[in-house]
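User: I'm putting together a teaching handout on how multi-component assemblies are represented. Below are the sequence lines for each component of a complex, exactly as they appear in our records. Could you produce the 3D structure of the whole assembly as structure tokens, so the students can see both representations side by side? Please keep the chain order the same as the input.
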Amino acid sequence: MSVKMRRSPQTALVMAEFLSDEQLWRYGYDISRNTGLKSGTLYPILMRLAEHRMLKTSWETAETGRPPRHMYKLTKDGLRYAREMVSEAAAQAVGEPAFDGAAFGGVGL
Amino acid sequence: MTRTRRLAVRISSGVVRWASPGCKEWAEGLEREAAVIESDWAALGWAIGSTRILLDRRPALLTSLDDVPKLLQRLVEQSRSGANMWLMILYGPLFLWKFFEARGPFAHTGYAIVVLASIIAGTFLLLERHRLKEPWKDDIYDDLIACTNFYKTQLRHRDRLWIPSVSYFCFCFGLFMSDHDVILLVLFCGLFFLFIPPLMQQRRQNNLRRIEEIDALLAEQDGVNGL
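Assistant: Of course. Below is the structure of the complete assembly, with chains in the same order as your input.
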């Protein structure tokens, strides 16, 4: 897709939140509470993900007396991208090892 | 309902009303979430944050290729009326005369910029006007695929609109400069750089989005025909 997808730390947070239960449909406010992102930061991320066909949206089936809520879930592409992104973010957080075992006959340190 | 909650509701419904067609669904989603937040202050914070969506101006999602002829017609009409500004090419000779009469390097430079900018913008728009006349046939509307391809070409072509925009900026810049009007010059530059580059960027992204939507619909149609 030619419209750019930014790999920001906030996007990684949202992705990690979706990965915590891949099959669950999420509400915007729940994602915001769990990630600590404000609505003005969260929704542009969700919109970008949907634009890249990584996020499915749906309206909750209406309960009596309450308007339906908008729900979100990652698509297959979204899940793949999320796993990749979260593992990358984790690797960066831990930091690269000074040298790996492969240089010493494949022995993991 | 407390005053804080009322304000939150008012902001959220304002966001839904003023959101661009492509963001309407998201604005409604934000509004519904604000309604389920228990704390009034948290709801207000949520509603204030949701106003950011107003900055994103995108057209409604294209759901069918049948809408393309209508969109194309609107785009061509817009481009044709914009191209009528080619008349600014006539300012070139007019200000050239002023350039020779001007005193001082500031005024000279200002008029030189005006002359160059009006010639560049006018020539571009004149060519654009000619280009839009030529391949245009009304029967293109009857052939959906030809119409769709023509629409995509037009959308790609709109990336080049930065040329008259920058020329128009230079034209006004030169005018203020030749008048030694420093306050207006600074004000104009500030407003221009504040609004025009983001608007151009958004327009460009919307065009790219539209092209991608069309490609996806074409691929879908090919898939259906292939079955």
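A couple of points students might notice: Chain A has one domain: 9-104. The CA atoms of residues 27 and 71 of chain A lie 5 Å apart.
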